Amino acid sequence: xxxxxxxxxxxxxxxxxxxxxxxxxxxxxxxxxxxxxxxxxxxxxxxxxxxxxxxxxxxxxxxxxxxxxxxxxxxxxxxxxxxxxxxxxxxxxxxxxxxxxxxxxxxxxxxxxxxxxxxxxxxxxxxxxxxxxxxxxxxxxxxxxxxxxxxxxxxxxxxxxxxxxxxxxxx
Length: 171
What we know:
This protein is α/β, with parallel strands linked by helices.
């Protein structure tokens, strides 16, 4: 529906692959060691492809970067923020201006169903995103409902361009 301007999947994955690693890392204790390979994948990709990601924005650069907010209140940590901060010499945090506090999950409504575009599932501080190109980081793109709904909420709040960067695109 035009909410997402670009999707940048770092890898493609089939059942039992990358999405299985992500699921174990974020939802089960005992798999914290997966932070290193997942963060390394993210950071190495950005190291080599950040210029291309920037070049797709209308003004040739991403103004603001953020993450898709989780609605899992039982998780003991923010897995996306942890992956962003996961390695030394961090190229992804120094490349773009990151802000994860202006965007939140609206828990008064259900999360988007597969294939549903539901921007009302997210709250955005419009003053932060007005007239910006936003990089939106998510772990896995399966149906795209969460990322696309978040992107739609960003656009409704005034963002002019949204690029979604995802660790994996599940096939």
